[in-house]
Amino acid sequence: MNASPEKNTDFNSKEGMEDALEHLEAKLKDVLDPLYSDLRSLHFRLLELEENSKQ
Length: 55
What we know:
Helix content: over 70%
Number of helices: 1
Distance between the termini: 53 Å
Order of helices and strands: H
Largest sheet: none
Mean pLDDT: 86
Radius of gyration: 20 Å
Strand content: under 5%
């Protein structure tokens, strides 16, 4: 696991663990936010297509 070299990554300390978790949270947010947005767009597009197919 590579947190951030400039941060305290000593997992024996509470601060080191908190820094690593904050770093991981930011990385996950960077990846998951666009995916969630794309998923929502696809969901609404599918609902629209389903509604159009019923007409």
